[in-house]
Write a structure and sequence with these properties.
The structure holds 3 protein chains of 3 kinds. Chain A is of the alpha/beta class. In chain A, 37% of the residues lie in helices and 14% in strands. The longest helix of chain A has 20 residues. The mean pLDDT of chain A is 94. Chain B has a single domain, classed as TIM Barrel. Classes of the chains: A alpha/beta, B alpha/beta, C alpha/beta.
Chain lengths: 320, 426, 166
């Protein structure tokens, strides 16, 4: 079976996951993103690439922040952007996911940016488009269940490359709720594909997926050991619903053991950078002093995120 | 009409026959194997040259979706599928709507099936009312109405005391209790085997422990109550070890596996293929191989289809949201043949798992063998033909199978039920 | 077809531009040949504003048909476009589509007071109403499609026009 995100020429047709995406394509996206960062400084912050195209933000799960960054990216490429918050509309009336997609196709959609609470939902849409002969419509996964959040993974790679230039000499630690995190899965896939020799995950056993070591990471349970000598610290968001219950006793205990404080960060390399996909839970996974400190690159991540999404959309919009 | 099936290779596992024998049928019964009885006049002769003649297949789990889920399948559609698959006896799980917990419902199902005059149905009664795990069903009356065993289908009993009592009560009559080993808490929300594949795909997982923990409970209670136990749809190598240990300890426990588990593992989910969403989940390659080997050695007693027709709307959804299950009546024989080929298993043994061995578990005396005097349920198939599995060729209303687009060995040519030719391949 | 000496053509182009530029004139080279050429002209003409460069990948009119250039380099306009006299520099003028794309891009940075176009060679074959303000060599007859002129730079920095048969 062909990788559903590549067309028969091996070009990007949809962006669904970074797991299994060839290194050359990841690098191409990062390279393409670089010139887009400069568009924000122009008098006219727009490029004509997607002029006349309709991009549908199809969000089955609410996320104002991610939706906004996609919206800005699409608008900077001159696309018409239509936001659909499907979580509150049609699916409640018994319409299936594919009914919704068919309807939007009938409205001449050119691209779907899909956020869904179920892993694999964007694959279903991509396969449906293929089965119904609508290969000209592209799908960008904006986060599906616990599976993937490829544009977040890519913007993280862009940020790392921006600050560290190379990947082949880095030690990177991913900290927190890996089990439920699509961000972590995309980060691990990208980091290992780009040749980072040492990717670590640091988390309690209740927040790590089974066989996580087979994804090419080293497992740590203690921040003191896991942060030692790392170049990059990637914090994950701890969702509210995981904070109390059978996975963790309390946010306080989580912060005490796995929260990133200046003291713990001091164990990393002096020039280590701190990343977070946002929105942050200050005092749960990260201390304000670190979040606002000199080593944090959390706001640049957001800025780079727009360029990376522009790169992805313009590569997809031009693939056939 | 008297029927003479000639020149076929007759395989009758119950009687340990694998030989070139003609079969003679009169008045719905088998009247001769090898030699025609005196004065036999054939009204029809079926030339079975190059074909294999076996007892009509017995499927230990076929959901016909009636009553309650007629939009997924009907008795009519699924009976046609059974005939095309050479399956002449069906054990029906109780998870219909309403569930099979009342004698009236069971009688109605049997009556409807009889009127259609296709495969024989053998309902499995609900062990508890509404499968709710609270109140015992009227087992004695349900057996009178036609039930051959009792089960909870895929709805486990949460209260272990109720479970123990249900087994005790069933043991009073010697009824076999069929249980699906899946701890509801460990399995909660899960859709795929807990391993590297589910971890990578971010699919909520069901650990092997869910099967093991449930098995521990069931086997222990069976030992304590003396209940006869049948473990349905085994999925793991470890679970098998546990069952074998219990057998050594004297527990009367049989088990089955569904045919697709002999061929697929978690890696086959591929790009979130909802057709691979099944409960229990396809486990690791190691588990698959262990199940296939155990079935070949007879340590797993029978192979069933776990036939579950699902409508497209319920399958064309994201993996986790899709309804689990696969259509299987028409694939039971092909998948069994493929498994036998892969394990170089004699056809006599392979066919046994879907005829005589299955009959023994379900207590079906009249089917699963070709002894003289018995009901003439016969399946005749071409072992060398291959079929491309696609939506169009499936008679079942459910087109949900991970084998779509694949070629499988074996093609049913004739199906006879009680001596009547019910299916003939074009 | 023998091509004239490239260095000679550069000198000719600089001579043609000299009377019409001031020290404040801004040069913008189009990637890749145009940037090399602009660097030489910038030095020869002694212009003071820093050199600009444009990669027209994001403004090409064949994006819909051919997709995005695999490695866009981006544009760099390190001066204020509004009110400036700008000379767009390219090595070869052909259909005019690249020039159109560069003009569109330039105007997204602001409104220049005047824009000129300087090219080393005009190979004919225009598809848009565009002509060069300065041109070192106009081919007497349009170059057939399938042949391409391309500026190359060796390790010493010397520039050479080469004719390529596709």
């Amino acid at each position: 079976m062909r990788n559903p995100q590549l067309n028969q020429h091996g070009e990007l047709q949809h962006l669904l996951t970074l797991d299994g995406l060839p290194r050359a394509i990841i690098t191409q996206i990062l390279d393409t993103a670089a010139p887009f960062t400069e568009v924000a400084e122009r008098e006219v912050k727009k490029l004509p690439l997607l002029r006349g195209k309709s991009v549908f933000n199809l969000f089955f799960e609410n996320s104002t922040r991610t939706r906004t960054t996609f919206e800005i990216a699409a608008k900077r490429l001159s696309a018409d952007v239509i936001n659909l918050n499907v979580a509150t509309s049609s699916t409640k009336k018994g319409e299936t996911l594919l009914d919704t997609v068919d309807n939007l196709c009938a409205m001449q959609a050119d691209m779907f940016v899909v956020r869904h609470e179920s892993s694999g939902a964007p694959y279903l849409i991509a396969q449906h488009l293929q089965n119904t002969g609508r290969d000209h419509i592209h799908v960008v996964n904006a986060g599906d269940g616990r599976h993937a959040h490829p544009t977040q993974g890519l913007l993280d790679m862009y940020t790392i490359r921006h600050y560290k230039q190379e990947f082949h000499n880095l030690t990177v630690a991913i900290v927190g709720d890996v089990l439920h995190s699509r961000v972590a899965r995309s980060q691990i896939a990208a980091l290992t594909t780009l040749g980072v020799p040492e990717v670590r995950v640091i988390a309690p056993k209740t927040l790590l997926p089974t066989d996580v070591d087979k994804m090419g990471v080293q497992v740590f349970h203690s921040m003191e050991e896991g942060l030692k000598g790392v170049d990059v610290v990637m914090m994950l968001r701890l969702q509210n619903e995981r904070m109390n219950g059978a996975l963790l006793p309390s946010p306080q205990e989580f912060f005490k053991v796995w929260g990133l404080t200046a003291e713990k960060l001091a164990l990393a390399k002096p020039d280590a950078i701190v990343m977070h996909p946002g929105p942050m839970n200050r005092g749960v996974e990260i201390d304000s002093a670190v979040a606002d400190g000199g080593q944090a690159v959390i706001l640049p991540q957001v800025t780079f995120g727009i360029a990376v999404r522009m790169a992805v959309m313009s590569m997809l919009g031009g693939s056939h | 009409m008297n029927i003479h099936i000639q020149n076929g290779r007759l395989i009758d596992p119950a009687n340990k026959i694998d030989a070139q024998h003609d079969l003679f049928i009169a008045d719905g019964k088998i009247v001769g194997v090898g030699n025609a009885p005196a004065g036999f006049n054939a009204g029809r002769t079926i030339d079975a040259s190059g074909l294999v003649v076996v007892p009509g297949l017995i499927d230990l789990a076929a959901r016909l979706r009636e009553p309650g889920y007629e939009y997924k399948a009907t008795l009519e559609s699924e009976m046609e599928a059974a005939m095309a698959g050479g399956v002449t006896s069906l054990a029906i799980p109780p998870d219909t709507d309403p569930v099979l917990d009342e004698p009236g419902l069971v009688e109605m199902l049997c009556y409807r099936a009889k009127k259609l005059n296709r495969a024989h149905v053998y309902p499995i009664g609900a062990l508890t009312i509404g499968l709710k795990g609270e109140q015992l069903s009227e087992m004695a009356e349900l057996v009178e109405a036609g039930c051959v065993a009792f089960s909870q289908a895929n709805t486990p009993i949460l209260d272990t005391r109720v479970l123990g009592r249900a087994m005790q009560y069933a043991a009073t009559f010697g009824f076999r209790v069929w249980l699906q080993p899946l701890d509801p808490y460990l399995a909660r929300g899960g859709v795929a085997h807990d391993g590297e594949v589910a971890s990578r795909m971010g699919l909520p997982a069901i650990p092997t422990s869910a099967e093991i923990v449930a098995l521990f409970t069931y086997l222990r209670l069976a030992r304590q109550t003396g209940a006869k136990l049948h473990i349905t749809r085994l999925s793991s190598a470890e679970g098998l070890d546990l069952i074998e240990q219990a057998r050594k300890d004297g527990v009367d426990v049989t088990c089955d596996v569904a045919a697709h588990y002999l061929h697929l593992c978690d890696m086959d989910i591929g790009y979130f293929n909802p057709h691979c969403h099944v409960i229990p989940p396809f486990r690791s390659q190691r588990d698959r191989l262990a199940l296939a080997k155990a079935a070949a050695e007879g340590r797993i007693n029978a192979i069933c289809s776990d036939h579950t027709p699902v409508d497209d709307d319920a399958k064309q959804t994201p993996f986790s949201e899709s309804e689990p299950g696969t259509t299987g009546l028409e694939l039971l024989l092909p998948l069994t043949l493929k498994w036998a080929q892969e394990h170089r298993l004699p056809l006599l043994d392979a066919i046994g798992r879907i005829t005589s061995d299955a009959a023994r578990i379900a207590g079906i005396a009249k089917g699963g063998h070709l002894s003289v005097g018995t009901r003439a349920d016969v399946c005749i198939f071409d072992p060398d033909a291959h079929q491309l599995i696609n939506r169009g060729m499936l008679r079942s209303q459910g087109k949900n199978t991970p084998f779509l687009g694949l070629e499988l060995p074996g093609q049913v040519r004739f199906t006879l039920v009680e001596g009547s030719l019910m299916y003939e391949a074009a | 077809m023998p091509l004239p000496d490239t260095e000679q053509l550069i000198a000719t182009l600089a001579d043609a531009m000299r009377p019409r530029v001031t020290p404040d004139t801004c040069l913008v080279g189009i990637h890749t040949g145009g940037v090399w050429l602009a660097e030489r002209l910038h030095a020869l003409l002694g212009l003071s504003p820093p050199l600009g460069s444009i990669d027209v990948s994001f403004y090409r009119d064949d994006y819909a048909a051919k997709g995005l250039h695999p490695q866009p380099r981006g544009s760099r306009i390190p001066f204020d476009v509004a009110g400036a006299h700008i000379v767009i520099v390219d090595d070869v003028l052909y259909t005019g589509r690249t020039t159109r794309a560069a003009l569109n891009e330039l105007f997204d940075y602001g409104r220049p007071s005047r824009v000129d176009l300087a090219v080393l060679i005009d190979r004919g074959g225009r598809e848009l109403p565009i002509s060069a303000s300065f041109c070192a060599l106009t081919l007497p007859a349009p170059l057939p499609t399938g042949q391409n002129l391309q500026l190359e730079r060796d390790d010493s920095g010397a520039l050479t026009l080469r004719l390529i048969h596709a």
